[in-house]
Write a structure and sequence with these properties.
This protein is of the alpha+beta class. Helix content is 45%, strand content 17%. Strand 16 and strand 17 form a beta hairpin. The longest helix is centred in the middle third of the chain and has 37 residues.
């Protein structure tokens, strides 16, 4: 309820409403159809919508004309014509249109028939691809039969169509009209060839659609969803249609599904009587009534159970794969955009395809370590990550620690005659950045670009400028810098924690009485991830050189130690 909202999204939405008006309808079905019309007319900002909806074409069979034709159009209308689609791939739609013109002798030239003054037929007539209705050479009734066959083809009723074409061919043969019989013979061959490619079948001969929608979470992909429709006609899978959906951030999948079903099916025609969906949705009954009213045939949404969910699972698998492909593309675009933004933001001479980020971690001033992570072309390269144990600093001194690690890194690259990074990012403010710059200057690497990224307020520090810059936190460049900083932070903490665990393990093993150096080394080597204090006798027996008696003795040692600690 938008007027008394309890959903946080609806509360935010209503806070942005400046005016409210309503239109009264007789039924909920009429309201649904009106809503769809208004959405298409005004394209409201906060409505779930198909991505670039205008790009999805339809195939129109112009039944309103005396001699119908078939052509591509961007809109479907209630004008007496038949519309098939929308097709998600314009190229695919053009291929189908071309196949129809090569297969069926239906007119291709766009003109209004019949002509007042018939003119010479085009080349398609002479090569057997048109019956030349422009010349009045074909009765309207015969031409209409061909048009109905085109419709059967587009509906996926290939077996019924083949049967009709075969009978038509036989009829013309019996009447000794061999030229007409040859046209239908060639049509039959083309249909059989096309049908052989459509070999995905399901039990039964039902006409139905299977629909699935999936969405994803993440900083880049949170606003994206994908819908897939598998069209079965006569039990045969004739098409897979996929649609990119936008403006879905924070919406439940059930709401995305309902919005997509309304938008897609209310603009479509030639619907199957049964549409299989993963779950029931709000407004389902009203949508069924609206579609039934619009098509003149009973339309039902069905939620399958048990083995019947196989179609939904197949559609969902397709939707997920397509969504992941889209997300990979979006991430690539975001990375490229982010690198360009970083180059512009810091005035770099070239695109920063190689960047490194450094962070310091310690435990109460002890066990200080540094991490260096490397990103190439905007992607992390874990094989090039490095850990550093700080050697020259005692206690808490992040600037001195940063200076040491940057000096060691630059020195290493110079000694190995390897290129320096295009940019170094320091996790910290102006103090840490200044220390890093001093290290670079001392090694004749003053031209090495460096910036500091302070975590608390997402501030950017540039060398020799104590005033931070706060860029757009949602920009692609800042997202990439944050990703690097967070990765360096995670890597430093994980290494620091691992070192503490190793020290703890070493002390624990040293405290075990009456075991020699070889068995201590075996215990240290075996228990790298799990605390030895929590090991069972069985786990201790898995250590090389540890027998049952010693395993039980070690187990008892730690049991007594833990008991004393807890008292």
């Amino acid at each position: 309820n938008y007027l008394n909202p309890d959903d946080p999204r609806h509360i935010v939405l209503m806070n942005r409403v400046r005016d409210l008006e309503w239109i009264t309808t007789e039924t909920a079905t009429e309201a649904l159809i009106l809503e769809d019309t208004l959405i298409k007319k005004y394209s409201p900002k906060y409505n779930v919508r198909l991505k670039d909806d205008k790009r999805y074409p339809f195939l129109c069979v112009s039944l309103s004309e005396t001699y119908p034709q078939i052509y591509l159009t961007r809109r479907s209308r209630q004008d007496g014509n038949r519309y098939f689609g929308p097709y998600t791939d314009v190229r695919s739609a053009r291929q189908i249109l071309d196949l129809i013109h090569r297969t069926f002798p239906i007119r291709k030239v766009r003109q209004t028939l019949p002509l007042k003054t018939p003119h010479r037929p085009c080349m398609n007539y002479y090569i057997g691809r048109c019956l030349a209705p422009c010349q009045g050479n074909v009765p309207v009734e015969e031409y209409d039969k061909i048009v109905q066959e085109v419709i059967l083809f587009l509906e996926g009723r290939h077996e019924l169509l083949e049967d009709k074409v075969r009978r038509r061919m036989d009829d013309y043969s019996e009447k000794m009209q061999f030229e007409r019989a040859a046209i239908y013979r060639d049509l039959l061959v083309s249909l059989r060839s096309f049908s052989e490619k459509q070999n995905v079948m399901k039990p039964g001969t039902a006409d139905e659609d299977a629909v699935a929608v999936c969405s994803s979470e993440g900083e880049i992909e949170a606003d994206q969803a994908q819908a897939v429709i598998l069209e079965f006609r006569g039990g045969r899978l004739i098409a897979r249609k996929s649609y990119s959906i936008q403006s879905v951030a924070g919406l439940p999948i059930k709401e995305i599904l309902a919005s997509f079903l309304r938008e897609y099916y209310l603009q479509n025609s030639g619907l199957p009587p049964r549409i299989v969906v993963p779950e029931s949705f709000e407004g389902q009954r009203e949508l069924e009534q609206a579609l039934t009213l619009r098509t003149g045939s009973k339309i039902k949404f069905v939620v399958p159970k048990g083995d019947g969910r196989a179609l939904i699972d197949l559609a969902a698998k397709n939707a997920n794969l397509l969504l992941q492909e889209r997300i990979l593309g979006l991430k690539h675009q975001s990375r490229t955009k982010g690198l360009k933004e970083i180059q512009k933001l810091f005035g770099l001479k070239q695109l920063p395809t190689i960047m490194e980020c450094y962070d310091i971690s310690h435990f109460g001033g002890k066990d200080t370590v540094a991490s260096g992570v490397r990103f190439e072309d905007g992607l992390p390269k874990p094989a090039a990550y490095r850990h550093y144990i700080i050697r020259s600093v005692d206690g808490i001194n992040d600037p001195a620690s940063i200076q040491e690690v940057i000096a060691r890194r630059i020195q290493r690259l110079q000694n190995e005659k390897r290129n320096l990074p295009d940019l170094i990012v320091i996790d910290g403010g102006i103090t840490q950045l200044t220390a890093a710059r001093q290290a670079a200057i001392s090694l004749d690497a003053a031209d090495l670009p460096m910036v500091g990224l302070a975590e608390e307020r997402e501030e950017i520090y540039l060398p020799e400028n104590p005033i931070p810059y706060v860029p757009d936190p949602n920009s692609a460049g800042m997202r990439l810098l944050r990703q690097m900083r967070d990765e360096a932070h995670r890597f430093a903490i994980s290494h620091q924690r691992k070192r503490r665990n190793q020290e703890s393990l070493k002390h624990a093993v040293e405290a075990i009485p009456d075991i020699g150096p070889a068995r201590k080394r075996a215990l240290l080597k075996h228990f790298t991830d799990k605390k030895i204090e929590d090991a069972t006798v069985k786990e201790l027996l898995a250590v090389s050189g540890i027998g049952k008696e010693l395993a039980e003795r070690i187990y008892q040692h730690f049991a007594i130690t833990k008991k004393k600690t807890s008292e």
